[in-house]
């Protein structure tokens, strides 16, 4: 273990952390607005990966252009899920909402399994082989691009939330739903829009890593837990917290991979998760409790 | 004068006709292995999952603390007794005691940490999931417990003293009786101090506290009972199938299997887990064979059922039965 | 003639993030008395109840109940000592029957199921809910829910009962019924500390009244003297009285 190995790991940690941030931001947005913990978030990301993969494999699109297909597709899926499923139980006890999203994730994951088999698929794209070198340290183009995409997505979302009317309506609905209704904001619409945006975030994150991460039906499961850890770390409903939390967990996971055998590397993030839930349930940066 | 028709009593009692029906069902179940030997395996699985589902039901249905990680206790149960047997020759009967003890201790640990800090619904569910996954990872990565290749329990012939049988029937009867015992236990518990306290905590823990209910203690008690029951199931599973590995025990799928039965049957009811198991287990066997080529795709069916039940039948099948009974009573009265 | 105090609250202070909810509030409740706690909305009355019953800790002050120090005790421990309370927004155990709801309270003093059932039946008769014993609580009307709230607390056999706005949302007939019930409760030996808005209720019911405004005690005494107290009139009866005079 030498310095460059450590730096390499940390760098990769930051790069993947950016993607974690985007995933988490989608999740925390949905929680902030609807107070729902969306278990299906990972499956939505998985769908994004598959849409990207098939766009490249069947339509021979550039993977980064495929994202333009992923965004509306996932947005639509998100809207449908919200309007027809989640909306039906909007007044039900919390745990029922959780169970519902769990059911959706089970369904989506195994639908993918049924349609596309459990085979790991690796996108064939020339970009995957390109690396930059800084002394001993190699930076893979696709990882860098994933990070850049995630940052772009985050920035766009940030601008939307702070500068546009829609964004303000979303924030109003999440902080003060009763007040928002009084201001004439159609909170029901905000719900499905937010869910759609959340789904789109997951989809973009998936598409961003599809060039270098294997695509298979259960991949969502890996990321959903990480997304929860990030969201809880950053504070539920806290956008900036999710952003910072993503980077932190990305680095933590890298450190884990350095010291622990393959199957155990997530133990660090799980432990962080448990500790935060117990001792700082509002997250490091402050947020809402469930 | 307080009106007290039979089913309003706190100490639960059954009417004579109900006992007769129960007796008939019991007789039928005892005779089943002779008349329908092909069903024995399915019935064993029905009972096993009903037992563990009842365990989940005590914590999540009655006390209202939803756990998404009960595979933790299932795995702990399976691994504890199996490791004790394979490494130290300890009879699984005693091993089961150890399984229950380990599960209860870990459950109390997690419960204490969570409930003391007032962890609410979804967060507690997630913590259970996280702990189940942690143990999943440990079991997979730690060579001392045979890692991913799992533990194969050597069959040494028909030896009841070490819970090994060459035929299925002994397991059938053991699980039949255990499941019946778990139903009886929960049924009686419902109207007792502990039973009502648990439900009060579920309905409104602040109001319960104001009435003298120590909600922390109640939740921990529920957790202990729940962990123990589920761990017992783990031991029997291990001894029945004679093979366990991290995925088939600690895997998230098992948490779903355990939860789904009481949810479909009716959370917080005595018969819920059994009803759900009777309905779901055969259905899942059928879909599993139908989807044979696509391993795990039957879970798609689980997902759809879960969604449908949550939207249309939040009180489960028992909820429907109760409504029908209420209608019938209304028409008579 | 001074009766021994059951509850003594002395100098209780509580702030939330810089906002002072209660400032040096003191009151006493004597055995077998009905004491009223009144004040405009937001005066801090429910906060005081929450502190007394153990749901919150004060920043300063002392609270003793029959000689026991209450501060730091959890709510269920406070109940065990004999202090019961109701909630302003009623909290029935919806999925349980009326009888089961009350039984939860009854189990405070017994572990025996049959005894708890008997007790609960007795209490339901006392409050007039016996006909609805087997009805699930979620299906009760508002006045019945209030009765259930009181029945549950009564089942714990409290020596002192804190009633938080039990009249809210009731029409005059229903209010009279509840007033009769409260008097019945005192008659059976329980002391009562009651938060109320309706002036005629308080004046008619209470032996002694404490008035707080903006978290501070501004007056206490018998109903007659309170209704003539200028600072109380200004703070609480305020504009209504002035306009009444002007006519």
Account of the 3D structure:
The complex is a heterotrimer of chains A (about 290), B (about 325) and C (about 250). Chain A has about 290 residues and is an all-alpha fold. Chain A is about 70% helix and about 5% strand. Chain A is built from eleven helices and two strands. A two-stranded antiparallel sheet of chain A has the order 1-2. In chain A, helix 1 packs antiparallel against helix 10. Chain A is globular. The termini of chain A are far apart. Chain B contains 13 helices and two strands; from the N terminus they run αααααβαααβααααα. Chain B has a two-stranded antiparallel sheet with strand order 1-2. Chain B is globular, with a radius of gyration of 20 Å. Chain C has about 250 residues and is of the alpha/beta class. Chain C has nine helices and ten strands. In chain C, helix 3 packs across helix 4 and helix 3 packs parallel to helix 5. Chain C is globular. The C terminus of chain C is likely disordered. Classes of the chains: A mainly alpha (about 290), B mainly alpha (about 325), C alpha/beta (about 250).
Essential attributes:
heterotrimer; B: 333 residues; mainly alpha; two-stranded antiparallel ribbon; 13 helices; 2 strands; 73% helix; 1% strand; disordered N terminus; C: 247 residues; alpha/beta; six-stranded mixed sheet; four-stranded antiparallel sheet; 9 helices; disordered C terminus
């Amino acid at each position: 273990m030498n310095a460059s190995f450590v730096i390499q790991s940390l760098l990769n940690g930051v790069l993947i952390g950016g993607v974690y941030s985007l995933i988490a931001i989608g999740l925390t947005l949905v929680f902030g607005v609807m107070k729902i913990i969306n278990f299906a978030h990972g499956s939505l990301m998985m769908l994004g990966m598959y849409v990207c993969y098939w766009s490249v494999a069947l339509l021979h699109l550039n993977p980064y252009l495929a994202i333009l297909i992923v965004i509306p597709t996932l947005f639509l899926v998100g809207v449908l899920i919200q309007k027809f499923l989640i909306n039906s139980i909007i007044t039900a006890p919390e745990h029922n909402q959780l169970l519902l999203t769990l059911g959706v994730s089970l369904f989506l994951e195994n639908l993918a399994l049924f349609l596309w088999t459990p085979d790991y698929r690796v996108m064939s794209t020339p970009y995957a082989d390109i690396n930059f070198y800084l002394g001993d340290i190699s930076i893979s183009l696709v990882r860098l691009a994933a990070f850049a995409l995630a940052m772009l997505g985050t920035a766009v979302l940030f601008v939307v939330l702070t500068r546009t009317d829609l964004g303000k309506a979303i924030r109003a609905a999440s902080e003060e739903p009763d007040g928002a209704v009084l201001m004439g904001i159609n909170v029901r619409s905000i719900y499905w829009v937010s869910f759609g945006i959340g789904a789109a975030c997951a989809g973009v994150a998936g598409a961003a890593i599809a060039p270098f991460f294997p695509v298979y039906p259960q991949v969502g499961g890996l990321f959903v837990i990480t997304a929860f850890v990030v969201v809880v770390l950053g504070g539920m409903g806290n956008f900036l917290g999710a952003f910072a939390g993503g980077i932190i967990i990305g680095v933590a996971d890298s450190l884990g991979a350095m010291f622990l055998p393959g199957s155990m590397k997530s133990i660090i993030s799980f432990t962080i998760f448990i500790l935060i839930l117990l001792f700082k349930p509002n997250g490091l940066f402050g947020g809402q409790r469930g | 004068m307080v009106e007290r028709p039979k089913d309003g009593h706190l100490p639960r009692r059954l009417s004579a006709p109900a006992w007769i029906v129960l007796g008939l069902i019991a007789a039928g179940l005892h005779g089943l292995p002779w008349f329908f030997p092909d069903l024995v395996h399915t019935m064993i699985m029905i009972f096993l999952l009903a037992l563990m589902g009842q365990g989940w039901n005590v914590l999540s249905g009655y006390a209202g603390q939803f756990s998404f990680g009960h595979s933790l206790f299932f795995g702990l149960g399976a691994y504890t007794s199996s490791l004790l047997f394979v490494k130290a020759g300890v009879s699984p009967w005693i091993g089961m005691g150890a399984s229950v003890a380990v599960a209860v201790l870990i459950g109390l640990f997690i419960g204490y940490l969570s409930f003391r800090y007032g962890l609410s619904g979804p967060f507690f569910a997630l913590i259970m999931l996280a702990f189940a996954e942690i143990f999943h990872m440990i079991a997979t990565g730690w060579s001392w417990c045979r890692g991913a290749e799992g533990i194969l329990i050597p069959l040494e012939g028909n030896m009841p003293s070490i819970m090994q049988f060459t035929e299925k029937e002994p397991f059938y009867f053991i699980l039949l009786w255990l499941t019946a015992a778990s139903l009886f236990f929960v049924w009686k518990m419902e109207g007792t101090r502990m039973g009502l306290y648990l439900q009060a905590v579920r309905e409104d823990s602040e109001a319960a506290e104001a009435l003298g209910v120590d909600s922390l203690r109640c939740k921990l008690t529920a957790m202990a009972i729940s962990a123990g029951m589920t761990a017992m199931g783990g031991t029997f599973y291990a001894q029945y199938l004679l093979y366990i590995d991290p995925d088939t025990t600690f895997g998230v799928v098992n948490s779903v299997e355990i939860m789904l039965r009481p949810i479909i049957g009716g959370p917080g009811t005595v018969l819920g887990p059994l009803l759900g198991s009777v309905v779901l287990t055969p259905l899942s066997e059928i879909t599993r064979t139908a989807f044979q080529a696509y391993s795990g795709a039957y879970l798609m069916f689980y997902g759809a059922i879960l969604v449908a039940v949550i939207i249309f039948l939040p009180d489960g099948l028992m909820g429907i039965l109760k409504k029908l009974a209420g209608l019938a009573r209304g028409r008579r009265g | 003639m001074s009766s021994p105090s059951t509850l003594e609250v002395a100098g209780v202070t509580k702030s939330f993030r810089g906002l002072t909810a209660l400032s040096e509030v003191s009151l006493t409740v004597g055995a077998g008395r009905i004491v009223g706690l009144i004040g405009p909305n937001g005066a801090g009355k429910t906060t005081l109840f929450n502190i007394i019953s153990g749901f919150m800790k004060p920043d300063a002050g002392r609270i003793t109940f029959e000689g026991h120090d209450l501060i730091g005790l959890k709510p269920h421990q406070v109940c065990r000592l004999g202090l019961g309370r109701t909630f302003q927004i009623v909290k029935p155990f919806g999925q349980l029957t009326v009888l089961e709801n009350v039984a939860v309270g009854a189990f405070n003093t017994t572990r025996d199921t049959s005894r708890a059932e008997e007790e609960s039946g007795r209490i339901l008769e006392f409050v007039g809910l016996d006909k609805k014993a087997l009805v699930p609580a979620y299906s009760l009307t508002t006045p019945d829910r209030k009765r259930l709230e009181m029945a549950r607390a009564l089942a714990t056999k409290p020596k002192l009962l804190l009633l938080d706005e039990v009249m809210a949302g009731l029409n005059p007939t229903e209010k009279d019924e509840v007033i009769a019930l409260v008097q019945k409760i005192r008659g059976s030996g329980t002391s009562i500390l009651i938060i109320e808005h309706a002036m005629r209720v308080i004046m008619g019911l209470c032996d002694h009244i404490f008035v707080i405004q903006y978290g501070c005690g501004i007056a206490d005494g018998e109903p007659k003297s309170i209704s003539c107290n200028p600072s109380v009139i200004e703070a609480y009866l305020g504009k209504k009285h002035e306009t009444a005079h002007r006519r």
